[in-house]
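Re: your question from the hallway

Yes, I did run it. Sequences:
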Amino acid sequence: MARPRSFDEAAVLETARDRFWATGYAGTKVDDIAAATGLGKGSLYGAFGDKHALFLRVFDHYCTEAAEGTRRQLEGPDATAYRRLRDHVHAIAESVVADQARRGCLIAKSTAECAEHDEAVAARSRQLFRDLQGHLTACIAGAQRAGDIAADADPAHLAGLVLAVLRGLEALGKGGVEPAGIRAIADTALAVLPKP
Amino acid sequence: MARPRSFDEAAVLETARDRFWATGYAGTKVDDIAAATGLGKGSLYGAFGDKHALFLRVFDHYCTEAAEGTRRQLEGPDATAYRRLRDHVHAIAESVVADQARRGCLIAKSTAECAEHDEAVAARSRQLFRDLQGHLTACIAGAQRAGDIAADADPAHLAGLVLAVLRGLEALGKGGVEPAGIRAIADTALAVLPKP
DNA sequence: GCCGTTCTGGACGAGATAGTCAAGAATGGG
DNA sequence: CCCATTCTTGACTATCTCGTCCAGAACGGC
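Structure:
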C-alpha cells in the first residue's frame, strides 16, 4: 500500500545514541546523525521529529535500560542479596575502569548538560534515580534480613549512599582517576557498610 | 603610550564562566559572552585568544579555586580534623541543596562534556581530583591521630570514598534528588566512617 | 599638541546548521 | 498493471557562528 521503511528504527536510535553520547546534545549535528545512520534528513525528521524529540527518545530508552539492567542484577532471594549488591558495585566499577575511551555514562553527560534547561530530561533522570535507589533499597533490605548487613540501619539511607558512590565513581572515572583508585573506592564503600 | 584596557579581566572571566556554566562549551556562543560582558569581539579575541583558550582559562581558574577552598576548609590541627571533615561534607550537601537553579558544578559539567575529547580539560580535572583527595586524606589522617576515626583504616581509601560520595551528591542533585535525600546521604556517609 | 601604540566596536565573510520541500521510488491492493 | 500512499534523497533556505579585520578612540611620551 505504502512504501515501507528501509531502516531498522532500533538500530538508528542506537546510532543516534552513540552520536549524542560522543558529542553531547548541543555538540551533535543532525547531519552527523544522518551521516552515521545513512539516512537522509527527511527520513530522520519524518520518523522522529526534530533533534530534541530524537534526543528525548534516545535518552528515555537509555534510562529505561539502565534501570532494568540494575533491577535484574539486584533482584533475587535474600540469601544472596549481599552478594548481588557486591557484584553490582564491582560491575559498575569495572565498567568505569573498562571505559578506556572515557565516554562515561550518557545519563551523567545528559543531565549535566541539559537537566538545568530541559524539564523533560530533568524529569526522566529524577525518575531513574528514584528507580535505582528503589532497587538498591530492596536489595539491601534483603541482605539485612539475611543477616549480612546490620538490621538497625535504614536500608533507604544505605541505598542512597551506595547510589551516590556509584554516581561518584562515574564522575571520577570521567575525571581521569586511575583503575586502582576506582576499584579501591568500590571496595571501601562495600567495606564500610555496617555489619551485624 | 598605548590605549589602556577598559575592562576588568577578572570580571570578564567571571561573566564568561557563568555563560559556560549555564550553557556548556558547545552551547555557548562567543557572541553571548561578548554581549554578557559588553565587550566587542575584537577585544575578547585580542585579550583571551579564541573560544577554547578562553574556556580553558575559565576552567583552570575554577579548578584552582575549588581546590583552594577545599584545602582551606580541611586544613588545621588534628584535634578538630573530624569536625572539619564533617563540616565540609555538610557544606557540599548544603550547596547542592541550595542550588535551586540546578546549575550544578562547573567541573562536573565540563568534564562530562569535554574530558573525552579535550586533553587539556582531562588533565586539569585529573589534577584537581588528585588535589582534592590529597586534602581529604590529610584531614582524615588527622582525625585518625586524634582518635575520631579508626586508626587501622587506610586514610587514602576513606578519602577516595568521601570524594566519590561528594561527586555523587553533585550528580544526584543535578538529577533532581530532593534536599532530604541529599542530606541523608551526607549524614549516612559520615556515619559509616569507621570509629575507633 | 602630536605621534606611535594598543584597545574598541562592529561590520564582514566563510562555512556550518536546523529544518523544509519536492521529485521520485517502493509497496500492496484493486 | 496502475494507483494511492508513504518513504527516501538531497538540494535549498534562512539563520547562526566563529574568527578576522579595520577605522577610529584613548593613552603617555615628547
